[in-house]
Prior knowledge:
The complex is a heterodimer. Chain A is of the alpha+beta class. Chain A has helices spanning 9-20, 27-38, 44-56, 83-100; strands at residues 60-68, 74-81, 104-105, 108-109. In chain A, the strands form two sheets. Chain A has a two-stranded antiparallel ribbon with strand order 1-2. In chain A, a hairpin with a 5-residue loop joins β1 (60-68) and β2. In chain A, α1 crosses α3 (44-56). Chain A starts with 8 loop residues before the first helix and ends with a strand. Chain B is an alpha+beta fold. Chain B has 27 helices and 21 strands. The longest helix of chain B is centred in the middle third of the chain and has 45 residues, at 349-393. The two termini of chain B are 63 Å apart. Classes of the chains: A alpha+beta, B alpha+beta. At the A-B interface, α2, α3 and β2 of A face α2 and α3 of B.
Amino acid sequence: MGKGEFLGEFEQVVLLAVARLGGDGYGVSVRREIERRTRRDVAVGAVYTTLARLEEKGFVASQEGEASPRRGGRAKKLFRILPAGERALESARGMLDRMWDGVVLGGTRHA
Amino acid sequence: MSTRRGGGPPGLARLLVRLVADPESRQAQLGDLHEEWAERAEADARAAARWYRRQALRSVLPNLRHRAGRWTGRGPHGDGTMSTLVRNFRLATRSARRNAGFTVLVVGTLALGIGANTTVFSAVYGLILNPFPFPEPDRIVGLGTAYPRLGGELSFWENLSPAEYLDVRDATRTLEEVVAWDMGNRQIAGEGPPQNVFTGFWWGDALRTLGMRAHLGRGFTDDEVARGDPVALLSYRTWRDRFGADSTLVGKALLINGNPHTLVGILPDGVVLHGMDLWTILPVKPDEYPRNRRQFQILARIRDGMTLEEVNTDLEGIARRTEQAYAAEFEEYEGWSIRALRWNEVASRTFRVGGFVILGAVSFVLLLVCANTANLLLARARRRRREMAVRTALGAGRHALIAQLLTESLVLAGLGGAVGVGLAFLGTAGLRGLMATLALPIAGAIEINGPVLAFTAAVAAGAGLLFGLVPAFQASRAGVAGVLQAEGKGVTPGASRQRIQRVLVGLEVALAFVLLAGGGLLVNSFLRLTRVDPGFAHERLLSMRLTLPWEEYQGDAVPAFFRELTERLGAVPGVRSAAAGTQFPPISFQQSQLWFEGGAPSEDATLPRALTTVVTRGYFETLGIPVLAGRTFDATDGDGTPFVAVINETAARRWYPDGGAIGRRLKLGAPDSEEPWFEIVGVVGSTQNRGLERAAEPEIFGLHDQLGGGQNQLFLLVRAEAEPRSLLPAIRSAVAEMDPDQPIYAIQTVEEAFASSVATRRATTLFLTVFGVFALILAAVGVYAVVSYTVGERTQEIGLRVALGADAGRLRRLVVVQALVPVLVGAAVGTALAVPLGAGLQSILFQISGRDPLTLGSVAALLVGVAAVASFVPAWRASRVDPVEALRSE
């Protein structure tokens, strides 16, 4: 796997959020999903720049969604995960699993 | 901060997102933030706004990092090539971190300079340039008048009569929505005790003139104005503070002096013209007033496409036509003029000059900071010349070096600007506190908003370029060979740098000179002002206003009320005496034309005019105004006895220069007016009745018992044995015993009234003094730095001299004298600059010339003295150089 396909921690989190949301991932829902599951309050700007990076790497694709008065008349940008993104997530997880295998921290053995 | 705007996410934060967000996702980011904000706002609007701001701030870095990466061709993975810009930025921040002490010094002085500029600009912007939320402020004008025959200057308050209003309204080709108003105090009911509010009585709908719509409800309709309907508009702040922003009030009845009015609307936030919190319609028609009853103001809107000059030409024509028609009857129309001025300028007229003087001074401070920073950078460049030479040797071009050094300067300026904005938040908070204590009828708010931040950014960037350019070019000029050679040899290097440093020191001294001279002139003026004798004992004297509603008190009931009230107040323990009057020094404003039995006493070109003050018995005794001739009002004067008057010394001297004022008679108004004759029974000492800065004006006093009925709005004046405010509860209960519905308001001591009459001057003086001292310190630091470095570079030369037997004292003198050359040149340039600038200050100086030689001389002596001290320390160190050490270091 080349360096370009390596996923940072936050990239993994964002990509997983997009994957969980099916086709409904956009700024608000991704942010909320991350907040709900990780208890981390993340900035919209950080979510978007990460998504832009993931899009450049070919891991996600985006399309314009509907605009509404609730959004001040601005369109949504909807994201969905691409096969390359799924592979990257799997390989990241596999890499971590292999790294964890047999590690002992403070007396607890991780399977 | 931005309470003015209603719905929608916080404006500044939204602007920030718009600025920093990646264009590809900008709309989406804004939309997402909006969506989540709207959801949160339903639960808690303030928490939602806070959330939005935090989100906006936290989104800055990721967005910028992302864009910088894209812009510089840096791939998404963090490797690849770094652009020059990013590299220079990194070098600059690294350099700033490495020289922490230097950075703190430079950033600190820059922050002070930029912070002071931001604070002052926010005040000038909020109070002078843009005090009202009018959509097209340049089209809103007030009309001023000047009557040469009455000796008057251009006045914008209580300056026009209803007939003159009709003259303008019906004939103008250049103005539209011309409205006029009168002002007074009215009581409004609500929860709690009745409250007095400053009220405007209008002919017309001023909201249309302003081009605004009511915050709630509507303005006055033409039919309402024509019929004089009992309808009212409340200011936003009164509606919010007194009525809890209850929107159901609109359309309901509001009791004004006990009479029901329909509240048709709430004024937009920030629209408080001259402190008026209540607007009603004046039920009397303009043509029912005499032509010379000048107690109105006019507000108008310039027609689309017209200029202010065209308006003034138009008004000049109207004035001339009125003069032709009426000058025979009303002499004051001879040569009179009407002029339009933008309303923003009318409203800020009294403190405009002071504001711009302070802004000018603070920009001088920043120039000085720039010169000082450039100086420090040059001094530091000496230590970095190897670095520069090595970079050049490794192939860095001249432009690359300049770019790198300029980037460093801009980073310093950026840091200074950021810290400066922080300081400005403190500064503006302090200013707001100061303004609150002064309680001036000033519109606008001092806040750090978009335009202020834009100003700060421009100032910081300009400063960075200014102080960065000189050292950058200087450093890039030194060739590799020159530097590397100079490094080894004991020659005096950097002669051109030293020359530039001397020029910079001269510049600093010149700027400091100008600031100190301005501060000195103002301090001098202020000291002279505080020495002016007010003409009466103004200590421990409390003033407050009481307005009897005419619906309840008419005719003799009004003087009877005040007579009894002052008697009761006089009996309150701790009160020495009490009186009442329609005005008191220093805030006397009611004037009248007058005429003398047997014709005018002198052949003045101006018509006789005087302040006319109606007082109760005991007014002179309570204020401590001395009786110079005759008597004051006593028990023999009253309703039914002949009208009597007391005049002040200024009036007696002007009208009866040969003496014998007592027993003469005069009347108010024009020679043929129907007013009764008043016999002069006494002459009293003159007080500073128009404030400390203006000479005492002629003043006529009449007795309330004789003139009472219409004078229902008086100031109570209470002389206390000790601290006067402690008497307030007792005074309030004395008033309440007579009528519990009448509040006292506008409470201040007479000392405070004097202080607030010079508040702008005090602020200007204070600011210029602080700036002057800061400038002096910076200039001293500059001198010290230059002399230190010069001496440091010449250590070997000096060591040689000492070794050859030079006298230490002579050596010291030599160094000091050399250091003083640029100081003296700077002082000379400063004098040349200060003389014209001092002339510009003349309008706010008091009894002193803008070229006052004593002030300018003292400033020069102070600067040269401080510079001499600053250069003596390094000179002394130079004279102690150990020749062996100095020569060994070769």
